[in-house]
Amino acid sequence: MNVAFIEAKLDEIIKELEKEVMTVLMDESLDKKQTNLHMKPLTSTKQILVNALDSIKMVDRLGREALGE
Length: 69
Description:
Elements lengths: L2 H24 L5 H36 L2
């Protein structure tokens, strides 16, 4: 499994999410409640991606250990 490739792709996605976050934060037409409503899905998505990457790394590590690498 090419973990470095997966990590690079997830990093690209996270960078795009961060751009969306900045767009929401800079939108002065949104009040605090609207901003928070826009931010929650972005924050949750980023956390899901980070957790998925951690899981992939753990599975890869355990697989390598099982193979004796």
